[in-house]
Amino acid sequence: MSDETLPSDATLCYAGEPLELVDLDAAGIKFDQRGLVPCVVQQHGTGEVLMVAWMNQESLRLTLQTGTTWFWSRSRSELWNKGATSGNVQQLKALLVDCDGDTLLAVVDSPGPACHTGHRSCMFRAIRREG
């Protein structure tokens, strides 16, 4: 990934705070018993939550190396480069890890729909409140 994607200085901020830049080995990512960690995908600039997917060590490495998002498909048991088939490849702007190391946040530039249904976001259904 280029320095343009992840600046090496303290100007990169999230939620109004400067980010601590850490190497992958120092990030302390905690994979579950299946070797997976959830990754929330958010649109750069707008904050839209586009999708949630799973990463394993290889998809995480590919994401950092290529600057595009790679995930592990639990249903197909294979790696997939998001948007490689549709042309809506997500360009990685930043990859954050939460304080516990058990969730990732990929901030991306997603040129088109992120959902396989054709919706911009996979979060297009709201559950009605009861009462």
Question: What does the secondary structure layout of this molecule look like, with pairings?
Answer:
Layout: E1 13-14, E2 17-18, E3 37-43, E4 49-55, H1 57-66, E5 70-73, E6 78-81, E7 91-97, E8 104-109
Binding site for Mg(2+): 98, 100, 102
Domain Phosphoribosyl-AMP cyclohydrolase: 51-123
EC number: 3.5.4.19
What is the strand tally?
8
Overall pLDDT score: 91
The tally of helices reads 1
The strand order across the widest sheet is: 4-3-8-7
Report how far the terminal alpha carbons are from each other.
50 Å
* Overall radius of gyration: 15 Å
CATH class division of the domain at 49-124? Alpha Beta
Given as residue ranges, the uncertain stretches (5+ residues, pLDDT < 50) are 1-10
| Main sheet specs | 4 strands, mixed
Write the CATH fold name of the domain at 49-124.
Ubiquitin-like (UB roll)
Structural class: mainly beta
Shape: globular
Elements, N to C (H/E): EEEEHEEEE
Based on the coordinates given, report the CATH architecture of the domain at 49-124: Roll
Indicate the percent of residues in helices.
under 10%
What is the H level of CATH, i.e. the homologous superfamily of the domain at 49-124? Phosphoribosyl-AMP cyclohydrolase
Strand content: 25-35%
Describe this structure in words.
With 131 residues, the protein is mainly beta. The chain has a domain at 49-124: Phosphoribosyl-AMP cyclohydrolase (Ubiquitin-like (UB roll)). It has 1 helix and 8 strands; from the N terminus they run E-E-E-E-H-E-E-E-E. It has one helix spanning 57-66; strands spanning 13-14, 17-18, 37-43, 49-55, 70-73, 78-81, 91-97, 104-109. A 4-stranded mixed beta sheet has the order 4-3-8-7, covered by helices on one side. A hairpin with a 2-residue loop joins strand 1 and strand 2. The model is unreliable at 1-10 (pLDDT under 50). Its EC number is 3.5.4.19.
